[in-house]
Design brief:
The chain is α+β, with helices and mostly antiparallel strands. Helices cover 16% and strands 22% of the residues. It is built from 1 helix and 4 strands. The strands form 2 sheets. It has a two-stranded antiparallel sheet with strand order 1-4. A two-stranded antiparallel ribbon has the order 2-3.
Amino acid sequence: METVKVTITAENPNHTHAGKPVAKGDEIEVSTVEAAFLVRRGVIAKYQGQPKPAKPESESSDK
């Protein structure tokens, strides 16, 4: 499974990694699946290789 290094961006992440609490600015290595989960929780802002969100159909240029 591919791993990525991410930086914690939340002010108060209330998160642990490998059994240890993490703070804003800490770097941790996680799988891309875990990174996507951390983005959804607001613990990190982004990760390398993160897919771009799809455009809503209302913004499509095929009108």
